[in-house]
TrEMBL record:
Pfam families: MerR_1. InterPro entries: DNA-bd_dom_put_sf, MerR-type_HTH_dom, MerR_fam. Residues 1-71 form the HTH merR-type domain. It comes from Prauserella flavalba. One of its GO terms (molecular function) is DNA binding. This is MerR family transcriptional regulator.
Length: 130
């Protein structure tokens, strides 16, 4: 099955401009063309776009994504280096999760504190009106 650029954009959640940009900077190999010369994206292309989107979501820089894409085109010979890139990114993601968890704990503490303040204030108002 093949998809037009508009359908590939819709399915991937990326804009048409982003698809063209990814192709231009060698993140995405140029897709096949249909009989009319229009881009025809494959299921494999869409799976790769999904992976690229995940890498971007992790905060991986485009430069590193381009390195990974270039290595991917080399096949199994580059598997070791690709694994290193992913392990390093996983470490960065784990650090970010820990930072966010610490932020969440601070927010929870502050929210609980405001709950206590509101409860104490409500109790004072009940006593004053009694």
């Amino acid at each position: 099955m093949s998809y037009s650029i508009a359908e590939a954009a819709r399915r991937s959640g990326l804009s048409i401009d982003t698809l063209r940009y990814y192709e231009r900077i060698d993140l995405l190999e140029p897709p096949a063309r249909d009989a009319a010369g229009r881009r025809a994206y494959s299921e494999e292309d869409l799976a790769w776009l999904s992976f690229l989107t995940r890498l971007r979501t992790t905060g991986m820089p485009i430069r590193r994504m381009r390195e990974y894409a270039k290595l991917r085109r080399r096949g199994l010979a580059s598997a070791g280096r690709r694994k290193v890139i992913l392990v390093e990114q996983r470490g960065a993601v784990a650090e970010r999760i820990a930072e966010l968890q610490a932020c969440l704990e601070v927010l929870d503490y502050k929210i609980d504190n405001y709950d206590r303040i509101e409860q104490a204030d409500a109790a004072l108002h009940r006593e004053a009106s009694a």
